[in-house]
Structure formats: C-alpha cells, structure tokens
Design a protein that fits this description.
single chain; alpha+beta; N-terminal domain of MutM-like DNA repair proteins; Helicase, Ruva Protein, domain 3; 4-stranded antiparallel beta sheet; 8 helices; globular; DNA-binding
Length: 275
Amino acid sequence: MPELPEVETIRSQLALKLRSRRFDHVEIHDGRLTRPEPPEVVAAELAGEVVRDVRRRGKYLIFAFESGRHLLVHLRMTGSFQHPAAVGPDPHRRAVVNLDDGSDVAFRDVRRFGTWLLLEPGELDAYLSARIGDEPLEGAFTTAVFARALAGRSAPIKGALLDQRAVAGVGNIYADEALWRARIHPQRPAGELARQEVAALRKTVRQVLGLGIARQGATLSTFRDPNGRKGRMQKAFKVYGLEGEPCERCATPIVKTRVAGRGTWFCPTCQPDPR
DNA sequence: AGTCCGACCCGAACGC
DNA sequence: TGCGTTCGGGTCGGAC
C-alpha cells in the first residue's frame, strides 16, 4: 500500500522523467478515476499541459503544470505509475499519457480506488489543508505541533496516526512500525500520551518514514516504482505482518490484533497496555 | 467536534 | 480440484 515513502519514491522518479515534458495526449479508460468529472473531459483538459514539477503532500502526488493548474493523484491501495509504459494488453491500465518525447506514462490500479483530480490555479492549498495536516519530515512538525494534534483525543493512538489531519502520510504499516520503535501500545488513548512519549513517537515516525524512503518503499505484493522495481523496506519491518515471530528486542512473540478497524501488530512486552 | 462504521473494489487467501 | 466466502486497506460520508 503506498504510504508516504512509497509515494515519495514514485514522486522523485517521476520528477526526473517528467519535468518540462508536455502531455501531448491523454486517455483515461476508467470513469471512476475522475468521478464525478467525465474522464474524456479531464483527458482533453490535460492535453497540452507542461509539467513544471512533480510534488507530494502526505500520500498525494501532485503534478504541477506551467499553467498553474495541478493534477492531484491519490493512489489509494493499488495505484501505480509505469514509465516507460509496458507494451501489450493490461487489464489494470486505467490511463495513459503520451509525452512530447515520444514515451508513454501508464497509470495502473487493480482495485480502482485511485483518483485523479484536476485543480485550477489557486485551488490546491485549500483542497489539501482541508484534508491533511503537517508533513512529518518537515521542520514545522515539532513535538509541540504533534502534541496539539493529539490533545484531547480519546481515540487509540494507532487511529490518530492514521488520521491524515493529525499527521500527513502515515498508513497502517508505518504506524505499527513507529509505535513499536517508540514502545507505545497502539490502543493507548492519543490524548493521554505523556509529553516524552509524544516526543518519542514524533522521532520514530520520522525515522520509519525516512528509512522507508531510503529503501525505496515497501513492497508487500503489488507496490512497484515507475521503473517496475520493488522497494526494500519490507525487509526492515519489526512488527508489521510478523505475528508469532520473536520481537527483536525481547523475543516475545509479536501479537496481531485489531485497532481502529485495522490489522495491528505489536510486542505485548515492549509496548505494554497500562490498563 | 470527535469517533465509529459501512461503502467502495477485487485479488489473494482461506475453508470445505 | 473447484467453488464459495472472507479479508484488507485509505478515504469519505453518514450516524451517533
């Protein structure tokens, strides 16, 4: 599942390939991708746009055009980009962009949750600020800022980490990995964490996301970067998907449970539940 | 306002 | 072997 490190991996590669390229022609084969806008309308609007840069906010990929417009892409569960696009039939291909250098970029999405939204100049900031909070890897994401985002919340800290308005870009995998490193039980009420626990969690969130980027993301089954390569972060997991395996710190078998409606892995010894 | 839960998808894993 | 069922995951919208 693409979380911040996977989206960042895609962003950095696409930026190198697409900067200053013009979208000559766009085909969108799936009406869900641009809903409620008709796909042929969005495809026609995109034709002629020149890429100034490819950016990222949280899990959103942002194609910034010279015109001032932005194409906001969310990969959801299984969205991915391919460049150069593979030749031959692909039942999961949802869109293709022909570039002015003669190459094609393909968008694939098995589960069809991904979205493409074309925003007019000036619309981006309001759209994003309504949906997502601070970038965890930027300096503005201080312990004080994080503590404020968690203050007064009775929801489990795991759930708060998944809330994109509390902190942008953390998904199910990196939430579990950050909580293990910070030795915090996923079920702890977010607002009841001690200041030093918030500080520790801020640090480990940044650690695991940074490690994920350095390792080009995590590939469980489907994630591939635009060059078709897998990530390596899955080899550095300490708890995610490791039910029954010994905890690296204390050898206690890792437990799988359900928190905030999500599969959740943790070490019951290192991450004690104070209740 | 914050929290919870179902809906949206479909391939993979599982059960018989 | 083959078929049917369950599960998961990010976000949104509705219910509480």
